[in-house]
Each structure stands twice: as structure tokens, then as C-alpha cells.
Design goal:
The protein is α+β, with helices and mostly antiparallel strands. 18% of the residues lie in helices and 16% in strands. The chain has 2 helices and 3 strands, in the order ββαβα. Strand 1 and strand 2 form a beta hairpin. The relative contact order is 0.27. Bound molecules: zinc ion (2 copies).
């Protein structure tokens, strides 16, 4: 079986390491373990969300490995 494809963070475009935490948010966006805590990013990505105390992590649908996240996105296997 071919290895799971590398995924990049939607916000900072950093390629996530194979064992790095992958955060899948609503809208099928993948964020890295740094961007998931960025309050400014919550405002940018969810302009319609009026919860001022929110962080991107509050919109997380699943957290997993590269393989698990790629499978959830339908990119793999
Ligand atoms: Zn990032
Ligand atoms: Zn929100």
C-alpha cells in the first residue's frame, strides 16, 4: 500500500510531519498543532462565528495522524 500523502497546514502551509498532530476542522481544513491555537486565525477562518472566546480548536472535527486525517479527507488509501 502506498504511504499516506503529506498534508500541509491550511494556514501556515507548513507540511505536517508524519507523526505530527493533524487537526481536521469543519470545512475540511487541516491545521497544524500551532495554528489550531491561534485566535486571529479563528477570526479569519470563521468570520461568521460570533463566539469571541473561540479558538480554531473549537471547530475541530477530528484529531489524528497523517494517515487517519488523509483517510478522513478521502485522499487515502
Ligand atoms: Zn499551521
Ligand atoms: Zn468559533
Amino acid at each position: 500500500m502506498r504511504p499516506a500523502p503529506a498534508l500541509e497546514c491550511f494556514a501556515c502551509r507548513r507540511v505536517l510531519g508524519r507523526r505530527a498532530g493533524h487537526f481536521l476542522t469543519d470545512g475540511a481544513r487541516v491545521l497544524c498543532s500551532r495554528c489550531i491555537w491561534r485566535g486571529d486565525l479563528h477570526l479569519a477562518l470563521w468570520p461568521d462565528c460570533d463566539r469571541r472566546d473561540h479558538l480554531p480548536v473549537d471547530h475541530t472535527e477530528s484529531q489524528g495522524t497523517r494517515a487517519g486525517t488523509a483517510a478522513a479527507l478521502g485522499l487515502w488509501p
